[in-house]
Amino acid sequence: MSSQALISAAPGHGTDLSAAAVRQATTHVALPVFLLLSLFGGLNPGLARTVSALFAVEIHASPGELGLLGSCQSIGFAAMALPAGVLARRFGPVRMFLLGSVVAALVYVAMGFVSTPLWLIVGMTVTGFAMPLRFGAMNLASMRRLEIDGPARAGWYRASHQVAMFLIGPTLAVALVPAFGYQHSWWLVAASFLPAIALAPRILSSGAPSPAAREPAPPGRLGLRHALGLLAAVPALRRLSAAELLNSGTVIGFSAFIIAIAMRVYHFTPAVAAALLSLQAGVYVGVLFLLGWIPGRLGRARQLVVTALLVSVALVLLAGAGGVPGLWFGTALLGLGAGLVQVDHLQRSARLSRRHDAGGVAGVMALSSSSGGLVTGLIGGALGEMAGMQALFIALIPMTLGLAWWQWHARSAVSDE
Asked: How far apart, in Å, are the Cα atoms of 5 and each of 8, 111, 209, 355, 417?
């Protein structure tokens, strides 16, 4: 239901655009302007996913349907991660950004007429195929900005996106739904695309490459075969990809189920339930903005131990230990642990991009982040039907510890990361 996708996917979701083209464009764009586009880019999914989560509870969606709703956008993100980059290279980032924005906005207009979980899932799935067209240039551009702004600001682009997605978006959504109802709220979600549509041509075309530079790359160069070949050839990228899949999946799984858990299990009001999303995101974003120096200070081994413990304790609390206070404390701990992990991933991916093909690294990370949301959404839906929605958090604990153990034993290869 959320991504860092979006990012992380969210949350985040990178695509394979020409690194040279992005480098040329972003060096002409001031950081605040670049972050403004990222902020508006996160506002749309933040509004949409909160409105959809509240609407799903309103129409009595089952745990399985909630799991599908949480993972359905990831299907499109995973399928389009690499093709979107090829399209952006062929037709230019501005055209693809605008196309994705317009298609998604039109779908959200149509969502105003939806009244069943099935059509809610269908609509969100379609937007999952449109949104990657927007994220391609932006995510590779964020990698380029690391060379301009330095590693301490590695999380700023992701943080600005997350501020809008998980703080501003949910807060606005909770205010919009009671005031305007679900139909008009969906139409306001569609209208929220207008600022990004207005900003993108200036930002993404600044210093744009010539038409010749946008010609298709040789067959396979920017496609799945190239990304998988790079993944097979670089052990450090495999470890990073697995870690990104789990971290993204954990955050997306939390976002997919926490509102329903809060309202159905703990009987929270919609506004208080959405505040859990805001708390997790507030801590997460604070880490990205302010604590980018911590992974380097801790060192690789201690970073793995600290983050694995933070996330595991958070998952225990979210699974029901500690009742309502545990739910709030676990939410904050998850934001802290996942944020530290994300800073580490951004810095490692930037280092790998300098050693290997930047577009290939971005494509692999996009697939990993997207797949994480898909996997945890499906697992959470299945477990929710059998053992309750909080069972997902229990299932993620051994995965978190097992991944940390694997990476800890491979830490001698840190020079490759």
From this structure: 3, 21, 27, 25, 23
Q: Positive or negative CA dihedral for 293, 298, 300, 304?
A: negative
Side chain identity at residue 396, one-letter code: L
pTM, full prediction? 0.79
State pLDDT tens for residues 255-288: 889 999 999 999 999 889 989 988 998 898 888 8
Annotate 182-194 with b (16+ C-beta within 10 A) or e (fewer): beebbbbbbebbe
User: What sign does the CA torsion over 165, 167, 172, 174 have?
Assistant: positive
Tokens of 241: 């990809």
Residue pair 31/145 in contact by the 8 Å Cβ criterion: yes
How far, in whole angstroms, is CA 290 from its chain's centroid?
Answer: 19
In the block, tokens 């208080």 appear at 272
* Tokens found for residue 217: 């790359």
Encode 279-321 in three state secondary structure: HHHHHHHHHHHHCCCHHHHHCHHHHHHHHHHHHHHHHHHHCCC
DSSP letter at 210 equals: P
The position carrying tokens 């201690």 is 302
Dihedral angle sign, alpha carbons of residues 359, 1, 72, 87: negative
pLDDT, tens digit (0-9, with 9 covering 90-100), for 166-225: 788 888 999 999 999 999 999 999 999 998 888 888 776 654 444 444 444 444 444 667
- Please give the domain boundaries of the chain with CATH numbers for all domains: 19-205+221-416 (1.20.1250.20)
Tell me the two tokens of residue 56. Answer: 């799903």
Place of tokens 């997919």: 256
Helix residue ranges per DSSP H, 92-116 = 93-111
Distance, CA of 1 to CA of 260 (rounded, Å): 12
